[in-house]
């Protein structure tokens, strides 16, 4: 079991603990805003399970039917998270509307908010770990899970601050209004999550900063060649795909051209990690005098 799968299992455990704490806070207070927080935690557990299944499947080696591997399955997990987040937000809006029509007094707010605050601190720590490790391991499922949890932390903080005002002001309607704001924020989070994941499914190019580094690595390590052009990149989960045309002298031997390609592949993999690199070698009469000039 690799580190990504261990982190995914950890998310299920942490999500279950946080759900139990937030549900306890809701049961103690009867607050609709805390109910919305607990409902989002149910989604956290479900999406953590989906993320675990996704990272396990993505780790499967390439086979006859999937010669490029199973890395993109993580994007499907992230899209599922986005859909479930939006469904949860709509359920929260429904409860918020009912609560606004019939406001209720919140019971034992201090104890309920303290329990909810503890749950949020646990969420914040785990979200930080997931985002940091997800980026380092280039796992869209883990990064998406971490961002979702961090959104949960922010909304929980807003709920806690808002509910502290209820007993001070006597504005019982503030509870459902806060729940509605939580729902709107959750919808935005779900939409952004799906947007990023769909970009991965649509074979978006690498970010410009990484793309510039790829060009630089090719220019520095292609000694013996003339130029490189028609560079294309995409990413599928942890795997990065890079392909380009490499122009060499027309009289160069196959062995010499192959040595240059091997050197480029080693340099690129050292820079960007797990990658599949395809280099099309061309003679000098195919030069476009554009693209990457070999230094």
Automatic annotation (TrEMBL):
Source domain of life: Bacteria
One GO MF term attached to the UniProt entry: zinc efflux antiporter activity
Main location (coarse class): membrane
Domain Cation efflux protein cytoplasmic: 207-283
A Pfam family recorded for this sequence: ZT_dimer
GO cellular component: plasma membrane
Keyword Membrane included in the entry's annotation: yes
GO BP: any one term: intracellular zinc ion homeostasis
InterPro entries in alphabetical order: Cation_efflux, Cation_efflux_CTD, Cation_efflux_CTD_sf, Cation_efflux_TM, Cation_efflux_TMD_sf, CDF_Transporter
Presence of the UniProt keyword Transmembrane helix in the record: yes
Membrane topology type: Multi-pass membrane protein
Residue ranges constituting the Cation efflux protein transmembrane domain according to the UniProt record: 11-202
Transmembrane segments: 7-26, 32-55, 75-93, 113-131, 152-171, 177-194
Signal sequence coordinates: none
Locations listed in the record: Cell membrane
Family, as annotated: Belongs to the cation diffusion facilitator (CDF) transporter (TC 2.A.4) family.
UniProt name for this protein: Protein p34
Species: Microvirga brassicacearum
């Amino acid at each position: 079991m690799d580190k990504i799968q261990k982190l995914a299992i950890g998310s299920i455990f942490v999500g279950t603990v946080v759900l139990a704490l937030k549900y306890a806070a809701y049961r103690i207070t009867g607050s609709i805003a805390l109910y919305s927080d607990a409902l989002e935690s149910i989604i956290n557990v479900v999406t953590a399970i989906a993320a675990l299944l996704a990272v396990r499947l993505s780790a499967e080696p390439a086979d006859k039917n999937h010669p490029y591997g199973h890395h993109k399955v993580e994007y499907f997990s992230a899209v599922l998270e986005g859909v479930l987040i939006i469904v949860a937000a709509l359920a929260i809006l429904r409860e918020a509307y009912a609560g606004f029509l019939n406001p209720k007094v919140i019971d034992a707010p201090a104890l309920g908010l303290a329990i909810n605050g503890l749950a949020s601190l646990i969420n914040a720590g785990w979200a930080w770990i997931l985002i940091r490790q997800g980026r380092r391991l280039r796992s869209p499922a883990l990064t998406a899970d971490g961002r979702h949890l961090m959104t949960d932390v922010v909304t929980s903080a807003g709920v806690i601050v808002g509910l502290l005002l209820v007993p001070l002001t006597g504005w019982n309607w503030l509870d459902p209004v806060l729940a509605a704001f939580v729902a709107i924020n959750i919808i935005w989070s779900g939409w952004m999550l799906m947007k990023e994941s769909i970009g991965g499914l649509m074979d978006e190019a690498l970010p410009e900063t990484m793309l510039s580094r790829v060009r630089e690595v090719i220019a520095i390590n292609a000694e013996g060649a003339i130029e490189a052009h028609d560079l294309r990149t995409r990413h599928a989960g942890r795997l990065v795909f890079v392909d380009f045309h490499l122009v060499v002298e027309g009289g160069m031997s196959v062995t010499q051209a192959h040595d240059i390609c091997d050197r480029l592949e080693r340099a690129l993999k050292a820079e960007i990690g797990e990658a599949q690199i395809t280099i099309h070698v061309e003679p000098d009469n195919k030069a476009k005098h554009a693209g990457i000039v070999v230094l």
